[in-house]
Amino acid sequence: MIKVLFFAGMQEAAGTSEMTWDRETVTVEEVRKHVQEVYPQLVQAGVVPVAVNEEFAGEEDPVQAGDTVAFIPPVSGG
Amino acid sequence: MEKKRNYIVTTDVLDPAEWIEHVIRPEAGAINTFIGTVRELTKGKRTLSLTYEAYVPMAEKKLAQIGAEIEEHYEGSRVAIAHRIGRLDISDIAVVIAVSSPHRDESYQGSRCAIERIKEIVPIWKKEHWDDGSEWIGDQLEKVSYADKVKKEEEQ
After folding, report:
1. Fewer C-beta neighbours within 10 Å, C or N terminus of chain A?
2. Which domain, by its residues, includes A44?
3. Whose CA is closest to A31, among A12, A49, A4?
4. How far B26 CA sits from the closest chain A CA (Å)?
5. Of the candidates A26, A24, A13, the residue with the CA atom closest to the CA atom of residue A71
6. A76 falls within a domain
7. Which chain B residue shows the shortest CA-CA distance from A51?
């Protein structure tokens, strides 16, 4: 099971803070596509940075069962 | 006794003095503090309050990474950073950065570097509340590249 987290405006657009995806091994890019299929309103899921287990990850990086993927829309702390 | 954590994201009120305590030491002859507060007027719009949200474990990790970068780059510097989340009112303290160093230049530069990096890589988001609505700041629906977006002159 892969856990996917949404924050800020994406969380509001999705209407949920997280979802799960029952897969063994995929890539970041595949997670993006899956999220957009489940939540077509999340257009930004195709472009915003993604973190896997709390580190920014690239498109081809693997995502495995047990991992946590987080979409990181443009930050505005400080 | 538990070692003091130098990098935290918290719902508690921030006390700058506490963060100065984290970095004060005999080797330092300078401490620079940056305090970010909630501003009422932004581009002519009146903010009533702000809500900050964070991906807390990653945000604390990234604050620590920024501190480590500064300590490595500015010789002899020591860093502590606290960011508050939740609902904040006008003039509430949102972030405290304390940097100590043997001489003043490294503290000044390190402090500036820390706030700029926070605005680039730390997963914390700000929602502004006005009397006619509210909005997450950061242009999250525009399809521009992330690099362009973080370079936009952000508030504060």
Report:
1. N
2. 2-71
3. A4
4. 29
5. A13
6. no
7. B58
Q: Which CATH superfamily is domain B7-155 in?
A: Molybdopterin biosynthesis MoaE subunit (3.90.1170.40)
The CATH number assigned to the domain holding A38 equals 3.10.20.30
Mutation to test the A interface, candidates B125, B137, B149, B154, most A Cβ within 10 Å: B125
Number of domains in chain A: 1
Identify the band that residue B86 occupies on the pLDDT scale cut at 50, 70 and 90. very high
Is residue A77 one of the residues assigned to a domain? Answer: no
Using alpha carbons, list the distances in angstroms from residue B39 to A12, B36, B74, B89, B155. Answer: 24, 9, 30, 9, 9
Residue pointed to by tokens 């991992």: A67
B98-131 pLDDT, tens digit each? 999 999 999 999 999 999 999 999 999 999 999 9
